[in-house]
Write a structure and sequence with these properties.
alpha/beta; 2 domains; globular
């Protein structure tokens, strides 16, 4: 059987299949020979197929939009700060969370609190420290179980910020691929903003894809947001009020003061866990020094 597919303007682009062997006779045309007794086999045609029955092979593997499933809401875990958990719902697993703000805005406080909460849950965590800024004593005072913490010091014996950033990206790739971490924190606070912004957007996409179906929380601590639309949660911090005590020793300069607590304001900039666009919202909480009297 031979067949051919064609369309005409009268059919408005709908395909028709004509079969030369099977089909019914449709208005056969008679030549002069047929009229005078020399009959020829009539042409046969198959009726037009339904437009819905015609499937293009190129579209066979595409799922219609009506059959797409909605991605489930990620599991949320505590950040270690009750006010922040109530505000954002916690930190999402399998997602990238950005915490940004200037110096003394509570970035390190939030990171240490999240690490402490994760180690208390029995999870292993990692801090990729771009500038060798983590203080183990402060980490222990914040409640972090140090035997469950991997501290990667990218800033040690490194002179340039570009080299430290390169080390941070390589280590992060290895940690994400190895798996087994409940929380991985990237401390980019002390990198110059122009250096941190050199991280390609494709790198953040790759990080997000690697942890997408894992229980890992990827937490980036920065001066400014640099991951763009790759982050599922973006919180901007700022210091609202600094409280300091009087001079704490007789042999110290008169201008020296002990910082006892910081009143911090947090703004929810992006949250992909909500179906509706996030409106600008703020909360305020206080961070106190562990050794304040």
């Amino acid at each position: 059987m031979s067949s051919a597919v064609f369309s005409t303007s009268a059919a408005q682009g709908r395909p028709f299949v004509f079969d030369s062997e099977n089909g019914t006779e449709v208005c056969p045309q008679h030549s002069q020979d047929e009229l005078f007794g020399e009959a020829r086999p009539p042409q046969r045609v198959v009726s037009a197929i339904s437009p819905g029955a015609f499937k293009d092979a190129r579209l066979a593997g595409i799922t219609s939009a009506s059959r797409l499933t909605v991605r489930p809401r990620p599991e949320m875990v505590s950040s270690g700060i009750a006010a922040m958990d109530e505000f954002t719902g916690g930190l999402p697993r399998g997602c990238l969370t950005e915490i940004c703000g200037p110096a003394s805005s509570g970035r390190s406080t939030l990171m240490l609190s999240a690490l402490a909460a994760a180690t208390r849950r029995g999870e292993f965590c990692a801090v990729v420290d771009a500038s060798d800024a983590l203080d183990p004593q402060s980490a222990a005072a914040a409640g972090i179980e140090l035997d469950r913490l991997l501290w990667v010091r990218c800033g040690e014996n490194s002179r340039s910020a570009e080299h430290r950033l390169e080390q941070l990206l390589r280590v992060t790739d290895l940690l994400l691929e190895s798996g087994g971490f409940g929380l991985i924190a990237l401390d980019l606070c002390d990198l110059p903003p122009q250096t941190a912004r050199r991280i390609p957007l494709a790198t953040w996409f790759r990080f997000r894809r690697v942890i997408e179906h894992t229980p890992t929380v990827l937490l980036a601590i920065e001066r400014q947001s640099i991951a763009g639309s790759c982050s599922s949660l973006l919180v901007k911090l700022a210091a609202l009020k600094l409280a300091a005590s009087e001079n704490f020793a007789n042999d110290t300069p008169t201008h020296a003061q002990l910082l006892t607590n910081v009143e911090i304001t947090a703004e929810l900039v992006r949250s992909r866990m909500e179906r509706k666009p996030v409106r600008s919202a703020e909360i305020t909480f206080t961070s106190k020094t562990a050794w304040a009297g």
